[in-house]
Specification:
homodimer, alpha+beta, Nucleoside Triphosphate Pyrophosphohydrolase, 3 domains, six-stranded mixed β-sheet, 5 helices, 15 strands
Chain lengths: 266, 266
């Protein structure tokens, strides 16, 4: 046992946290005997140098997990630096749990390079953790913002449109295609604003703004429940969670919330 | 046979092209009987509407392919719109060829949703084409640019530093980490410039610029052969392929070349 190593304690894939909203750490002795360990990096925050690890969950947990209300509450309670650390760790161990087999030949894979790779025991192919680029966009026209409510979302909850960047397209092309598909609106002058990792299971959210050529909406009803144009005052009211707000904004730890804040500050 | 459908003819994963640098198309009758077909989209370029497909290569070709000199020559000969179409198609069929098995359970997978998905015949898990976000960065200090030569690259060939954006980090954090790891330089004020898809096998290249805090280089010799600071005049000479250029720039269809052009135009 090396006292300079520590183990991130997870509850399945959920974070364990103390009353101060900080992640709880154990030692490598807390890991099951046969657990695969992922190296998260070196922590030098207290002047020393500790190697940080997390365990890959057991085989039974091999399904992708979406964010649920319980998890969202936990995330809101975590301090920002702790949320970032948790997010990266969660993405990695979740990827390992769902990639115990080789996509090329079907053979078993084993963890390699401290958890930043898996290698096939049959054909030798290397596999690497996956991060999916997703564009999320403010669509603007005449000082209003186009926001949508996805299928199955609570009444009144609106967010920025978003979608995976597909093979063969730029970020800007992805934004334009997604908006055209979801709401039938043509956008131009797409600009990058900011990015954020999102660990459900492992996305790189790429926040942009684009100018709509018109305001007429043709909804793709297989993806969206509704979409509307909101004023600056509407967005401010929702960020302040006021009673008269015409919609509910996404919570503060989301990139959509950060994009809303960026937009009203313009 | 639907006369409104057409099949992109590939030579393995390489493009087939006519003398005008345009991709060659056949009909669905040109596809082998048992071939998996990927739907590329609708072509409305000649006023009509044709469904475009490509075949997944046979099982023997299930290895990732890197760009080689022959392929680079073909890419240079393709018109830009044709290169974009080829790149997207290549990424997709290559992904299918390398994902005939389920990473969760090892079972066989079959093509679904026109080729934008594979589904496991054993556990039912869905798998989606992968695109890896990669940051590629101009590192600037006092009007000079920091460029590197990768291990195994020809003498004199330099490009912008680049690396995968890892789970849990933003684009900007990825740029800073990569530069610190590869050349030991601290960068700040990272800004996004432009993006480009890159189909070897399927990357989203995210071009940025950052300001170096110093010029001292500490090379990671497991990744880089050398790294140097180049003047604006050096970069212009290399873009013009002049005899006195102190280095060779990447070819015009690369994002690094576009970044160099953007930088000298500032």
């Amino acid at each position: 046992m090396d006292w300079k190593a520590r183990l991130l304690l997870l509850d399945g894939l959920n974070p364990s946290m103390d009353e101060g909203g900080r992640l709880v750490w154990g030692t490598l002795a807390d890991a099951p005997e046969d657990a695969e360990l992922v190296f998260l990096g070196l922590d030098r925050s207290d002047g020393g140098e500790k190697a940080c690890f997390a365990c890959v969950p057991p085989e039974g947990d091999a399904r992708p997990r979406m964010a649920n209300p319980q998890l969202w509450a936990l995330m809101t309670a975590l301090a920002p630096d702790q949320l970032a650390l948790y997010g990266g760790a969660r993405s990695l161990v979740d990827w390992h749990a769902r990639h115990r087999f080789c996509a090329q030949c079907g053979g078993g894979t084993t963890i390699a390079k401290g958890g930043w790779q898996r290698t096939c025991t049959a054909c030798g192919a290397d596999h690497f953790p996956r991060t999916d680029p997703v564009s999320i966009m403010l669509v603007e026209h005449g000082g209003k913002l186009l926001l949508g409510r996805g299928l199955g979302w609570p009444e009144g909850r609106f967010s920025a449109l978003a979608g995976f960047v597909e093979p063969g397209e730029t970020i800007e092309e992805g934004v334009a295609r997604e908006v055209l598909e979801e709401v039938g609106v043509v956008v131009r002058d797409v600009r990058y604003i900011l990015s954020q990792p999102w660990p459900f299971p492992s996305q790189l959210m790429i926040g942009c703004i684009g100018q709509a050529e018109g305001t007429e909406i043709t909804l793709d009803e297989t993806e969206m429940a509704e979409a509307h144009w909101f004023t600056r005052e509407d967005v401010i009211a929702s960020l302040e969670a006021r009673d008269d707000a015409p919609m509910v904004s996404p919570p503060p730890h989301t990139i959509a919330h950060q994009l809303f804040r960026w937009w009203v500050a313009q």
